[in-house]
Specification:
Blueprint: H1 3-24, H2 28-48, H3 52-77, H4 89-112, H5 127-135, H6 143-165
Helix pairs in contact: 1-2, 2-3
Length: 171
Amino acid sequence: MTISEIIFYLFSATIIFFSILTVTSRRILRAAVYLLFVLVSTAGLYFMLNYHFLAAVQLTLYAGGIVVLIIFSILLTSHISQKFEPVGIKKQIFSAIAMAAGAILSIMVILNYGFNSLITVADNPTMNTIGYGLLNYGKNGYALPFEVISILLLAAMFASIVIAKKDKKTN
C-alpha cells in the first residue's frame, strides 16, 4: 500500500465518520463543526486528485463561507447549548431503511454503468478562459447558476431566521 492510498483511506474514513456525526449530533453547533471537517477532508481529496482550483473553491466557498454562515445563523437564532429532541425509534427505522435503499441503488447503478476508459486531455486553460466561463451567461457560462444558488441560499437563510425567531404559541 502506497502513501497516497493511505492518505486517501484516511480522508475517506474522516468524511464518513464526520458525516455520520453531522447527521446524528443532537447539538446544532457541533453538527456545523462536524460538517466543517467533512468539507475540509473533501478538499483534501480534491488536492490529491490535482484539482487545485476545485479544492481552493471548496475551502474558501464551502468550508470558509457556508460553514461560517451556518455558525453565525446558529448563534443569531438559537442558544449554543440547545439540544435537539431525541429521535424516536420509528424515525430511526425508516431512516435506516431509506439509507440502505439509497446505498443499494447507488451501488447497483455504479456497478452496472459501463464506464468508458477513454482519456481526454483538456485544453490548457488560461486565466482569460476561466474568467470568461465564470462571468458568461451563455453557453458554458457559470454566472447564472451562481446567481440562482446565491438567491436560493439567501432565501433559505431568511426562512430559517423567520422560523427560528417565530414565537412558539402553546395551545
